[in-house]
Amino acid sequence: MSSAVTRPAGPDHLWSVDEHLEDILSTVRPLEPIELQLLDAQGCVLVEDVMVPVSLPPFDNSSMDGYAVRVTDVAGASEEFPAVLEVVGDVAAGAADLVRVGPGQAARIMTGAPLPSGAEAVVPVEWTDGGLGEGPVSGMRARSLAPGGAEGQVRVHRPAEARAHVRAEGSDVKAGDRALEAGTVLGPPQIALLAAIGRGTVRVRPRPRVVVLSTGSELVQPGEELTPGRIYDSNSFALTAAARDAGAIAYRVGAVADDAETLRATIEDQLIRADLLVTTGGVSVGAYDVVKEALSHVGDEDEPGGGVEFRKLAMQPGKPQGFGSVGPDHTPLLALPGNPVSSYVSFELFVRPAIRALMGLQDVHRPRARAALKAAEALRSPKARRQFLRGAYADGEVTPVGGSGSHLVAALAHADALIVVPEDVETVEPGTEVEVVLLG
Q: pTM value?
Protein backbone atom coordinates (compact mmCIF):
# COMPACT_ATOMS: atom_id res chain seq x y z
CA MET A 1 0.00 0.00 0.00
CA SER A 2 1.17 3.51 -0.74
CA SER A 3 0.94 6.10 1.99
CA ALA A 4 -2.62 7.12 2.87
CA VAL A 5 -4.27 9.77 0.74
CA THR A 6 -5.73 12.48 2.96
CA ARG A 7 -8.07 15.04 1.49
CA PRO A 8 -7.71 18.63 2.68
CA ALA A 9 -10.78 18.55 4.91
CA GLY A 10 -11.37 19.79 8.42
CA PRO A 11 -12.63 17.66 11.29
CA ASP A 12 -16.20 18.81 10.68
CA HIS A 13 -16.16 18.00 6.94
CA LEU A 14 -18.93 15.59 6.01
CA TRP A 15 -17.54 13.11 3.52
CA SER A 16 -19.73 11.59 0.85
CA VAL A 17 -19.83 7.82 0.37
CA ASP A 18 -18.14 8.23 -3.00
CA GLU A 19 -15.34 10.42 -1.62
CA HIS A 20 -14.52 7.92 1.11
CA LEU A 21 -14.55 4.98 -1.30
CA GLU A 22 -12.43 6.87 -3.83
CA ASP A 23 -9.87 7.63 -1.12
CA ILE A 24 -9.68 3.93 -0.19
CA LEU A 25 -9.39 2.64 -3.75
CA SER A 26 -6.82 5.28 -4.74
CA THR A 27 -4.66 4.19 -1.81
CA VAL A 28 -4.92 0.40 -1.74
CA ARG A 29 -2.66 -1.32 -4.28
CA PRO A 30 -2.80 -4.91 -5.58
CA LEU A 31 -0.53 -7.36 -3.79
CA GLU A 32 2.71 -8.36 -5.48
CA PRO A 33 2.46 -11.50 -7.66
CA ILE A 34 3.89 -14.82 -6.48
CA GLU A 35 4.25 -18.31 -7.95
CA LEU A 36 1.97 -20.85 -6.30
CA GLN A 37 1.16 -24.53 -6.61
CA LEU A 38 -2.19 -25.14 -8.27
CA LEU A 39 -4.27 -25.92 -5.20
CA ASP A 40 -2.67 -23.06 -3.28
CA ALA A 41 -3.68 -20.73 -6.12
CA GLN A 42 -7.41 -21.43 -5.79
CA GLY A 43 -9.30 -18.17 -5.43
CA CYS A 44 -6.33 -16.13 -6.66
CA VAL A 45 -6.13 -13.92 -9.75
CA LEU A 46 -3.84 -14.77 -12.66
CA VAL A 47 -1.35 -12.05 -13.55
CA GLU A 48 -0.40 -13.40 -16.97
CA ASP A 49 -1.97 -15.30 -19.85
CA VAL A 50 -1.53 -19.06 -19.73
CA MET A 51 -0.86 -20.70 -23.11
CA VAL A 52 -1.54 -24.33 -24.03
CA PRO A 53 1.71 -26.30 -24.47
CA VAL A 54 0.04 -29.53 -25.59
CA SER A 55 -3.29 -30.16 -27.29
CA LEU A 56 -6.24 -31.61 -25.37
CA PRO A 57 -6.80 -34.40 -25.90
CA PRO A 58 -3.19 -35.03 -26.97
CA PHE A 59 -4.24 -37.90 -29.28
CA ASP A 60 -7.35 -39.36 -30.90
CA ASN A 61 -9.09 -41.47 -28.26
CA SER A 62 -12.27 -43.40 -27.67
CA SER A 63 -15.27 -41.84 -25.94
CA MET A 64 -16.85 -45.26 -25.34
CA ASP A 65 -16.03 -48.77 -24.19
CA GLY A 66 -16.32 -50.85 -27.36
CA TYR A 67 -14.41 -51.95 -30.42
CA ALA A 68 -12.16 -49.98 -32.75
CA VAL A 69 -13.06 -50.86 -36.31
CA ARG A 70 -12.75 -49.89 -39.96
CA VAL A 71 -15.89 -48.29 -41.37
CA THR A 72 -16.07 -50.55 -44.44
CA ASP A 73 -15.96 -53.67 -42.27
CA VAL A 74 -19.20 -52.75 -40.43
CA ALA A 75 -21.12 -51.17 -43.31
CA GLY A 76 -24.64 -52.61 -43.46
CA ALA A 77 -24.26 -54.56 -40.21
CA SER A 78 -27.46 -55.54 -38.39
CA GLU A 79 -28.59 -57.99 -35.71
CA GLU A 80 -29.84 -60.34 -38.44
CA PHE A 81 -26.68 -60.00 -40.50
CA PRO A 82 -23.88 -58.92 -38.12
CA ALA A 83 -20.38 -58.09 -39.23
CA VAL A 84 -18.06 -60.77 -37.87
CA LEU A 85 -14.60 -59.41 -37.05
CA GLU A 86 -11.41 -60.93 -35.67
CA VAL A 87 -10.43 -59.40 -32.30
CA VAL A 88 -6.70 -58.68 -32.41
CA GLY A 89 -6.18 -57.37 -28.85
CA ASP A 90 -7.03 -54.88 -26.13
CA VAL A 91 -6.36 -51.14 -26.06
CA ALA A 92 -6.60 -49.76 -22.54
CA ALA A 93 -6.37 -46.16 -21.35
CA GLY A 94 -2.71 -45.30 -20.97
CA ALA A 95 -1.59 -47.93 -23.46
CA ALA A 96 1.58 -47.15 -25.38
CA ASP A 97 2.10 -50.28 -27.47
CA LEU A 98 -0.92 -50.35 -29.75
CA VAL A 99 -2.22 -53.11 -31.96
CA ARG A 100 -2.98 -52.43 -35.63
CA VAL A 101 -6.47 -52.93 -36.99
CA GLY A 102 -6.46 -54.37 -40.49
CA PRO A 103 -9.24 -55.48 -42.85
CA GLY A 104 -11.78 -57.67 -41.11
CA GLN A 105 -10.29 -56.95 -37.69
CA ALA A 106 -11.29 -55.10 -34.51
CA ALA A 107 -9.57 -54.15 -31.26
CA ARG A 108 -11.37 -54.06 -27.94
CA ILE A 109 -10.96 -50.49 -26.67
CA MET A 110 -11.69 -48.68 -23.42
CA THR A 111 -12.89 -45.12 -22.84
CA GLY A 112 -9.96 -42.70 -23.10
CA ALA A 113 -7.68 -45.21 -24.85
CA PRO A 114 -5.78 -44.11 -27.98
CA LEU A 115 -7.39 -45.03 -31.28
CA PRO A 116 -5.19 -47.76 -32.78
CA SER A 117 -3.61 -47.48 -36.20
CA GLY A 118 -5.92 -48.53 -39.01
CA ALA A 119 -9.11 -47.99 -37.03
CA GLU A 120 -11.53 -45.31 -38.21
CA ALA A 121 -14.35 -45.47 -35.66
CA VAL A 122 -15.48 -47.02 -32.40
CA VAL A 123 -18.63 -49.09 -32.02
CA PRO A 124 -20.00 -49.20 -28.46
CA VAL A 125 -19.94 -52.61 -26.82
CA GLU A 126 -23.75 -52.43 -26.61
CA TRP A 127 -23.81 -52.67 -30.45
CA THR A 128 -21.99 -56.02 -30.29
CA ASP A 129 -22.22 -59.48 -28.78
CA GLY A 130 -19.14 -58.76 -26.68
CA GLY A 131 -17.41 -61.77 -28.23
CA LEU A 132 -19.90 -64.18 -26.64
CA GLY A 133 -21.49 -65.34 -29.89
CA GLU A 134 -24.97 -64.38 -28.72
CA GLY A 135 -27.16 -61.24 -28.90
CA PRO A 136 -26.28 -57.65 -27.90
CA VAL A 137 -24.60 -57.24 -24.50
CA SER A 138 -24.87 -54.43 -21.97
CA GLY A 139 -21.19 -54.22 -21.11
CA MET A 140 -17.76 -55.79 -21.27
CA ARG A 141 -16.56 -58.61 -19.13
CA ALA A 142 -13.73 -57.62 -16.82
CA ARG A 143 -10.39 -58.65 -18.25
CA SER A 144 -9.43 -60.27 -14.94
CA LEU A 145 -12.51 -62.52 -15.22
CA ALA A 146 -12.26 -63.19 -18.94
CA PRO A 147 -8.68 -62.76 -20.16
CA GLY A 148 -9.66 -64.31 -23.47
CA GLY A 149 -12.16 -61.55 -24.17
CA ALA A 150 -9.68 -59.71 -26.39
CA GLU A 151 -9.34 -62.71 -28.66
CA GLY A 152 -11.58 -64.65 -30.99
CA GLN A 153 -14.44 -62.98 -32.84
CA VAL A 154 -16.93 -60.23 -32.18
CA ARG A 155 -20.26 -59.70 -33.94
CA VAL A 156 -21.14 -56.07 -34.65
CA HIS A 157 -24.88 -55.38 -35.06
CA ARG A 158 -24.83 -51.79 -36.28
CA PRO A 159 -22.76 -49.76 -38.77
CA ALA A 160 -20.61 -46.79 -37.73
CA GLU A 161 -19.67 -43.62 -39.54
CA ALA A 162 -16.09 -42.43 -39.77
CA ARG A 163 -14.82 -40.90 -36.49
CA ALA A 164 -17.89 -42.12 -34.60
CA HIS A 165 -17.24 -42.08 -30.82
CA VAL A 166 -13.72 -40.73 -31.36
CA ARG A 167 -12.48 -37.67 -29.49
CA ALA A 168 -10.22 -35.87 -31.93
CA GLU A 169 -6.78 -34.65 -30.95
CA GLY A 170 -7.06 -30.96 -29.99
CA SER A 171 -10.87 -30.98 -29.99
CA ASP A 172 -10.82 -29.35 -26.51
CA VAL A 173 -7.90 -26.94 -26.91
CA LYS A 174 -4.98 -26.89 -29.33
CA ALA A 175 -1.31 -26.31 -28.61
CA GLY A 176 -0.65 -22.57 -28.84
CA ASP A 177 -4.16 -21.57 -27.79
CA ARG A 178 -4.66 -19.27 -24.83
CA ALA A 179 -6.02 -21.38 -21.99
CA LEU A 180 -6.73 -18.59 -19.48
CA GLU A 181 -6.41 -14.81 -19.59
CA ALA A 182 -4.67 -12.62 -17.06
CA GLY A 183 -7.23 -11.41 -14.55
CA THR A 184 -9.02 -14.76 -14.31
CA VAL A 185 -10.01 -15.87 -10.82
CA LEU A 186 -8.95 -19.49 -10.39
CA GLY A 187 -11.85 -21.72 -9.38
CA PRO A 188 -12.14 -25.52 -9.63
CA PRO A 189 -12.74 -25.60 -13.44
CA GLN A 190 -9.75 -23.34 -14.08
CA ILE A 191 -7.56 -25.44 -11.77
CA ALA A 192 -8.68 -28.52 -13.71
CA LEU A 193 -7.72 -26.94 -17.03
CA LEU A 194 -4.30 -25.90 -15.75
CA ALA A 195 -3.62 -29.41 -14.49
CA ALA A 196 -4.85 -30.91 -17.77
CA ILE A 197 -2.33 -28.89 -19.79
CA GLY A 198 0.48 -29.84 -17.41
CA ARG A 199 0.89 -26.65 -15.39
CA GLY A 200 2.04 -27.40 -11.85
CA THR A 201 2.37 -23.76 -10.75
CA VAL A 202 0.95 -20.40 -11.81
CA ARG A 203 1.81 -16.78 -11.22
CA VAL A 204 -0.96 -15.04 -9.32
CA ARG A 205 -1.71 -12.28 -6.88
CA PRO A 206 -2.20 -14.01 -3.52
CA ARG A 207 -5.45 -13.87 -1.59
CA PRO A 208 -5.24 -10.95 0.86
CA ARG A 209 -4.80 -11.76 4.54
CA VAL A 210 -7.43 -9.82 6.47
CA VAL A 211 -7.41 -9.53 10.25
CA VAL A 212 -10.72 -8.61 11.90
CA LEU A 213 -10.81 -7.16 15.43
CA SER A 214 -13.93 -6.25 17.34
CA THR A 215 -13.68 -3.87 20.30
CA GLY A 216 -15.76 -3.41 23.40
CA SER A 217 -15.57 -4.53 27.02
CA GLU A 218 -19.24 -5.52 26.81
CA LEU A 219 -18.56 -8.29 24.29
CA VAL A 220 -18.72 -11.97 25.19
CA GLN A 221 -17.69 -14.81 22.87
CA PRO A 222 -20.46 -17.16 21.71
CA GLY A 223 -20.59 -20.23 23.92
CA GLU A 224 -19.60 -18.32 27.04
CA GLU A 225 -21.92 -17.23 29.85
CA LEU A 226 -23.83 -14.03 29.15
CA THR A 227 -23.74 -11.94 32.33
CA PRO A 228 -25.83 -8.77 32.94
CA GLY A 229 -24.91 -5.85 30.71
CA ARG A 230 -22.98 -8.00 28.22
CA ILE A 231 -23.77 -9.01 24.63
CA TYR A 232 -22.38 -11.66 22.33
CA ASP A 233 -19.74 -10.61 19.80
CA SER A 234 -21.38 -11.06 16.39
CA ASN A 235 -19.51 -8.42 14.38
CA SER A 236 -16.17 -10.20 14.25
CA PHE A 237 -17.86 -13.37 13.02
CA ALA A 238 -19.92 -11.51 10.41
CA LEU A 239 -16.96 -9.53 9.06
CA THR A 240 -14.58 -12.49 9.04
CA ALA A 241 -17.13 -14.52 7.09
CA ALA A 242 -17.71 -11.58 4.75
CA ALA A 243 -13.96 -11.21 4.15
CA ARG A 244 -13.70 -14.89 3.25
CA ASP A 245 -16.71 -14.54 0.97
CA ALA A 246 -14.92 -11.67 -0.77
CA GLY A 247 -11.93 -13.92 -1.48
CA ALA A 248 -9.62 -13.16 1.45
CA ILE A 249 -7.86 -15.39 3.94
CA ALA A 250 -9.43 -13.95 7.09
CA TYR A 251 -8.40 -14.21 10.73
CA ARG A 252 -10.76 -13.33 13.55
CA VAL A 253 -9.32 -11.85 16.72
CA GLY A 254 -11.46 -12.14 19.84
CA ALA A 255 -13.03 -8.98 21.22
CA VAL A 256 -10.54 -6.48 22.61
CA ALA A 257 -11.46 -4.58 25.77
CA ASP A 258 -11.95 -0.80 25.79
CA ASP A 259 -8.34 -0.05 26.61
CA ALA A 260 -6.17 1.86 24.16
CA GLU A 261 -2.90 0.22 25.15
CA THR A 262 -4.37 -3.27 24.86
CA LEU A 263 -5.86 -2.50 21.46
CA ARG A 264 -2.63 -0.90 20.24
CA ALA A 265 -0.58 -3.91 21.34
CA THR A 266 -3.04 -6.31 19.72
CA ILE A 267 -2.92 -4.48 16.40
CA GLU A 268 0.88 -4.38 16.44
CA ASP A 269 0.95 -8.13 17.12
CA GLN A 270 -1.36 -8.78 14.17
CA LEU A 271 0.58 -6.74 11.61
CA ILE A 272 2.83 -9.70 10.82
CA ARG A 273 -0.04 -11.61 9.23
CA ALA A 274 -2.15 -8.80 7.80
CA ASP A 275 -2.45 -7.27 4.35
CA LEU A 276 -5.51 -5.43 5.62
CA LEU A 277 -6.80 -4.71 9.13
CA VAL A 278 -10.47 -4.20 9.93
CA THR A 279 -11.72 -3.00 13.31
CA THR A 280 -15.32 -2.66 14.39
CA GLY A 281 -16.52 -0.45 17.22
CA GLY A 282 -15.04 2.46 19.10
CA VAL A 283 -15.10 5.03 16.28
CA SER A 284 -17.88 7.33 17.49
CA VAL A 285 -17.72 10.12 20.06
CA GLY A 286 -18.36 8.25 23.32
CA ALA A 287 -16.08 8.40 26.35
CA TYR A 288 -15.15 4.73 25.86
CA ASP A 289 -14.56 4.85 22.11
CA VAL A 290 -10.85 4.14 22.37
CA VAL A 291 -10.11 3.13 18.78
CA LYS A 292 -9.27 6.68 17.75
CA GLU A 293 -6.84 7.06 20.63
CA ALA A 294 -5.21 3.70 19.98
CA LEU A 295 -4.87 4.07 16.22
CA SER A 296 -3.18 7.46 16.31
CA HIS A 297 0.09 5.77 17.43
CA VAL A 298 0.37 2.24 16.06
CA GLY A 299 3.94 1.39 15.17
CA ASP A 300 4.36 4.10 12.54
CA GLU A 301 5.56 7.13 14.47
CA ASP A 302 8.64 7.35 12.28
CA GLU A 303 6.89 6.45 9.05
CA PRO A 304 5.70 9.42 6.93
CA GLY A 305 2.14 9.20 5.66
CA GLY A 306 0.97 6.76 8.29
CA GLY A 307 -1.90 7.03 10.72
CA VAL A 308 -5.65 6.67 10.57
CA GLU A 309 -8.08 9.51 9.85
CA PHE A 310 -11.55 9.37 11.41
CA ARG A 311 -14.40 10.85 9.44
CA LYS A 312 -18.11 11.50 9.36
CA LEU A 313 -19.87 10.27 6.25
CA ALA A 314 -23.13 11.48 4.76
CA MET A 315 -24.69 8.04 5.01
CA GLN A 316 -27.02 5.99 7.17
CA PRO A 317 -26.15 3.62 8.72
CA GLY A 318 -22.40 4.00 9.14
CA LYS A 319 -21.75 7.70 9.65
CA PRO A 320 -18.49 7.29 11.68
CA GLN A 321 -15.65 5.72 9.69
CA GLY A 322 -11.89 5.54 9.87
CA PHE A 323 -9.28 4.85 7.20
CA GLY A 324 -5.52 5.00 6.94
CA SER A 325 -2.41 2.90 7.39
CA VAL A 326 -0.51 1.48 10.33
CA GLY A 327 2.88 -0.07 10.90
CA PRO A 328 6.16 0.21 9.00
CA ASP A 329 4.67 -1.38 5.86
CA HIS A 330 1.72 1.02 5.83
CA THR A 331 -0.78 -1.79 6.22
CA PRO A 332 -4.21 -0.40 5.29
CA LEU A 333 -6.75 -0.25 8.10
CA LEU A 334 -10.47 0.40 7.94
CA ALA A 335 -12.23 1.25 11.20
CA LEU A 336 -15.94 0.49 11.07
CA PRO A 337 -18.77 1.37 13.44
CA GLY A 338 -19.79 -1.07 16.15
CA ASN A 339 -23.51 -1.45 15.48
CA PRO A 340 -24.01 -4.75 13.62
CA VAL A 341 -25.88 -3.41 10.62
CA SER A 342 -23.62 -0.36 10.36
CA SER A 343 -20.51 -2.53 10.37
CA TYR A 344 -21.86 -4.96 7.77
CA VAL A 345 -23.12 -2.24 5.42
CA SER A 346 -19.77 -0.46 5.80
CA PHE A 347 -17.97 -3.69 4.98
CA GLU A 348 -19.96 -4.16 1.78
CA LEU A 349 -19.44 -0.57 0.65
CA PHE A 350 -15.79 -0.08 1.60
CA VAL A 351 -13.95 -3.17 2.85
CA ARG A 352 -15.09 -5.61 0.19
CA PRO A 353 -13.92 -3.32 -2.66
CA ALA A 354 -10.58 -2.89 -0.85
CA ILE A 355 -10.14 -6.67 -0.62
CA ARG A 356 -10.97 -7.08 -4.30
CA ALA A 357 -8.51 -4.31 -5.17
CA LEU A 358 -5.77 -6.07 -3.21
CA MET A 359 -6.53 -9.20 -5.24
CA GLY A 360 -5.93 -7.25 -8.45
CA LEU A 361 -9.48 -7.49 -9.76
CA GLN A 362 -10.71 -4.82 -12.16
CA ASP A 363 -14.34 -4.94 -11.06
CA VAL A 364 -14.35 -4.63 -7.27
CA HIS A 365 -18.01 -3.80 -6.71
CA ARG A 366 -21.11 -5.85 -6.02
CA PRO A 367 -23.54 -5.96 -8.95
CA ARG A 368 -26.36 -3.44 -8.91
CA ALA A 369 -29.84 -3.47 -10.40
CA ARG A 370 -32.97 -1.37 -10.69
CA ALA A 371 -36.06 -2.65 -8.91
CA ALA A 372 -39.58 -1.52 -8.10
CA LEU A 373 -40.10 -0.82 -4.40
CA LYS A 374 -42.64 -3.23 -2.94
CA ALA A 375 -43.78 -1.78 0.36
CA ALA A 376 -46.96 -1.06 2.32
CA GLU A 377 -45.97 2.55 2.87
CA ALA A 378 -43.44 5.12 1.74
CA LEU A 379 -39.84 4.90 2.90
CA ARG A 380 -38.40 7.85 4.81
CA SER A 381 -34.76 8.87 4.51
CA PRO A 382 -32.80 11.55 6.38
CA LYS A 383 -32.04 14.71 4.46
CA ALA A 384 -28.59 14.91 2.85
CA ARG A 385 -27.76 11.30 3.77
CA ARG A 386 -27.40 8.34 1.43
CA GLN A 387 -29.41 5.62 3.11
CA PHE A 388 -28.87 1.89 2.72
CA LEU A 389 -31.85 -0.23 3.76
CA ARG A 390 -31.92 -3.99 3.87
CA GLY A 391 -34.13 -5.63 1.29
CA ALA A 392 -35.20 -8.89 -0.33
CA TYR A 393 -34.85 -8.79 -4.13
CA ALA A 394 -36.78 -11.02 -6.55
CA ASP A 395 -38.23 -10.73 -10.05
CA GLY A 396 -37.43 -7.05 -10.47
CA GLU A 397 -38.92 -6.05 -7.12
CA VAL A 398 -37.35 -5.29 -3.76
CA THR A 399 -39.09 -5.47 -0.40
CA PRO A 400 -37.68 -3.77 2.72
CA VAL A 401 -36.64 -6.20 5.46
CA GLY A 402 -36.81 -4.92 9.03
CA GLY A 403 -36.57 -1.30 10.05
CA SER A 404 -33.80 1.23 9.69
CA GLY A 405 -32.28 0.50 13.12
CA SER A 406 -28.57 -0.29 12.97
CA HIS A 407 -28.84 -2.99 15.63
CA LEU A 408 -31.35 -5.29 13.85
CA VAL A 409 -29.23 -8.37 13.15
CA ALA A 410 -32.19 -10.70 12.57
CA ALA A 411 -33.48 -8.56 9.71
CA LEU A 412 -30.02 -8.50 8.15
CA ALA A 413 -29.98 -12.31 8.07
CA HIS A 414 -33.04 -12.28 5.78
CA ALA A 415 -31.80 -9.62 3.36
CA ASP A 416 -30.02 -10.26 0.06
CA ALA A 417 -29.85 -6.66 -1.15
CA LEU A 418 -29.33 -3.09 -0.02
CA ILE A 419 -31.88 -0.49 -1.12
CA VAL A 420 -30.07 2.75 -1.98
CA VAL A 421 -31.89 6.02 -1.25
CA PRO A 422 -29.89 8.99 -2.64
CA GLU A 423 -28.94 12.03 -0.59
CA ASP A 424 -31.49 14.30 -2.29
CA VAL A 425 -34.44 11.95 -1.69
CA GLU A 426 -36.37 12.00 1.58
CA THR A 427 -39.42 9.94 0.59
CA VAL A 428 -39.73 6.88 -1.66
CA GLU A 429 -43.26 5.86 -2.57
CA PRO A 430 -44.23 2.21 -3.20
CA GLY A 431 -43.76 1.29 -6.86
CA THR A 432 -40.89 3.73 -7.32
CA GLU A 433 -37.87 2.35 -9.16
CA VAL A 434 -34.85 2.27 -6.85
CA GLU A 435 -31.24 1.13 -7.08
CA VAL A 436 -30.29 -2.01 -5.20
CA VAL A 437 -26.92 -3.52 -4.34
CA LEU A 438 -27.15 -7.29 -4.78
CA LEU A 439 -25.46 -9.11 -1.90
CA GLY A 440 -26.07 -12.73 -2.89
A: 0.84
